[in-house]
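Allow me, if you will, to draw on your knowledge of protein folds for a short while. I have a record of one protein: its chain in single-letter code and its fold written as discrete structure tokens. Kindly check, if you would, that the fold set down in the tokens agrees with what the sequence suggests. Thank you for your consideration; the sequence and its tokens are set out here:
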Amino acid sequence: MAEPIRVGIVGAQFAARFHWEGLSRVYKVPIQLVGVTSRSAASREKFAQDKGVRAFDTFEQLCDAVDVVDICSPPSSHEPLAVQALERGKHVIVEKPFTGYYGADISGFCGNTFPKEEMLREAVASCNRILTAAKASGKTVCYAENWIYAPAIQKEREILVKSGGQILWIIGEESHSGSHSPYYGSWKSSGGGSLVGKGCHPLSAALYLKRVEGEARNGVPIRPVTASARTHEITRLKDFRDEGFLRTSYEDVEDFVQIHIKFSDGTVADIFSTELVLGGVHNWLEVVSNNHRTRCNLSPVNALETFNPKEDLFRDVYVSEKIGTKQGWSNPSADENWHHGYVHEFQDFMESIQDRRKPLSTIELARDTVAALYTGYLSAERGGIEVDIPAASEDL
């Protein structure tokens, strides 16, 4: 019997816990969930105790004990940890956002006023350093973008390939009432606001489907070439009336964005993301092609509908992320991790490492996503004009 793939998690908060659940549901591929490390001794000890695994005092100790390093720490740490793990000969899973620009060494850094051209240049350079380390190590890098693996998105991939369709326009959104992460809201930790924190999901899915289309047609991915965007800070407007339902604790990041992408074949995508939407998470992508039209609804979905006359009755019942209230009619997610793609994501990651092939969500897709995101910020700084996305070689 094959030796199990040993996996260790970096980080012990929200992302680490849903990664654990996804890894725990991998089948047919033998894996061993070895342990966890994080900067907080209390957090890693509690996570280890809850899951029955080892808490490692240092990142180096964890690396020495595993084959795969799953990075669920704050985004500003992604590049140094990924590069170090690759140099130690480990496969790497990197949670979104893949990497970015954080201004960590700049005194008085303020993300919403810092020059975006420098941000774009440094964010792309960060991607390239991870790409270079991956190539040198010969190890797999998995970009943990769950939207790629959502069953609705994968069904559209099948429709697209089998019908020979040409995507003309993609429109998508991820919005809700504000992130629960304590790191979110400061550019130094999160690398941006709604665009990076939420828009990366539908954007990555759009870039993925255009890649699939190009590869199915002639073996060459269709890539993003320009971006134009507008960002806004609605909850920090002087006349914003705070009723207590939206998160407002943002230091220097946007809470609303619209980004328009043009691809190498001239087709387009429009992505929205905000912190302004009540009623739970709104995740959807619509594909308009020359021979079909598909609406991919990740949440909410109406597979299950229930009425609850009293809030307290559902005290211990999970309904859906950020629903706000459980009273009245709601659409509980029967298996949110499955429907949002997490289960399929980790299955593919482990299979790709076992079979020595690329995962569906690749490091090249991650690089294109980061380049598009920060080109969007540069466009917004310039009043929304169209800006070229830095090109990259596929064979770095």
Remarks:
- The chain has two domains: 5-144, 147-336+357-388.
- The first strand starts at residue 5 and ends at 10.
- The mean pLDDT is 95.
- The first helix runs from residue 14 to 24.
